[in-house]
Amino acid sequence: MQTCPCATAHNPQAAHLPTSPPILDLPPEILQEILSLAYSDDKDSHGIPVHLTRRLALFKKNILPVCRRFYDLGLHALYSHVHIGHPRAFDVFRHELAKNPKLGAYVKCLDFSDFTSIGLGRTRKMNREIQMVTCETITDALLQMPNLREFLVSEALEDDLGKDVLQTVFNRQKYLEAVDFCGASSDSFVSSMTSLKLELGSLEYLSRVGFHECVSLPAQVYEHMLPRLGRLERLDLTHTHVSARALMSIPERARITHLSLAKCRNVSPKAIVGLLTTHPAVTSGSLEWLSLQWTDLSAEDLTAVLEGLKRTAPKLRYLSLYGLPVEEAHLEQIGESVEELSLGFADVEIDSLITAFSGREKLRYLDLTGNPHITLWTVGDMRLLRGIPSVRTWEFDLTKILLKMTDVRLPGYTVVIGQGRRGWIFRGEKNKDALNVEHHCASPEVRSAHYCQHVLGMDMGSTEAWAGASRKIDCSGVQYGGGLERGIYLYYAYRIR
């Protein structure tokens, strides 16, 4: 844009008027970062969480068309995280790659966590016949993504995770940092994982690994992979056949922050105790998140684990002892750093809980599902809720307690009924930070909407109130994958008890 000479003659200051908005004069790195922040903002102007799909649409509509520079730099933000929610979206993405091959270099996260092949009258078989998402098409897309950092898939794609896909992910993606195969357990997936040959130097950067509910994978898969993970930080092995040999083969230089051994019945109590009290990858002080839900630990084993964690895990924030033989003496052994604690089915009396936790300032989340001493009446009399003032989120038995409290007034608290088998009580009658009750709408079945809300939407946001409720390790990174559970991940994180 040029300034008119006549205007300059009559107004000397016109020569100094900016020819473009100041933001466009910023270095490309800074402007790209600004656009990335605009893209990653997950709340609207009213503070209501915006689902990822909606954010993508808004970014394309409102940001990219502003000017050529916004468009060029916005592509980096838009394609750094490729979110695929259904077969048609993947087909469109592949056509975009074909028209503009340079887009593949922008992709850091290929995210199928929200993917479903069922809907709009289609079945899995019909979608396979359409041939939009297959082993071949996924492999073809992966080969065009030389800078991929995260590959997030789930059981919805288990039949399409063939040998070529896995070879490309693990051996061709040299910068790979995270993989998640949540719920995948089909015969074809197991066969492909079992026959996978890892090349020398592969998995060098892999630090976040999720096999949550991959119930069919044999122990040899973990024994082949875990020894290579020298940078391991997050490891989700919930309900798998991982062996003690595989766990002890994790390189000592790894620094694990998140570990789930929930429902790992193939690992003996002795091996679990040994891992948590002697392995440098766990005992170096890095551990922040630990789930031992429904493992075979005895009361004596649990004593050894808790005593060890007090010494080696000073930053431990989340601890799940769900289904373990927790006794009154164990409560005092739980480290002061713990903020989110699950004591599901612990046979511990209310007075003992209040005595042990009433003085704790950091404890924010407490799961007491299945406790035989807690009933509709003991919750309703508020003695427990008020006896541990630091706790802001409580979890109780859904069918025996919370579903019967839809008409019970709990001053200062909100009862929340989840979509699955779980329910919570939040401190605050309208805890917008926890679930945004106005946004999700109350169920027609709820007669007392001020005191009981039903969570209807799949996307419950990323607030701290929900952090302790998740039973799945989030393997996505905030920078690329968004750091949010979605789709099938959300199901395993918040719905299954």
TrEMBL record:
<dbReference type="InterPro" id="IPR032675">
    <property type="entry name" value="LRR_dom_sf"/>
</dbReference>
<protein>
    <recommendedName>
        <fullName>F-box domain-containing protein</fullName>
    </recommendedName>
</protein>
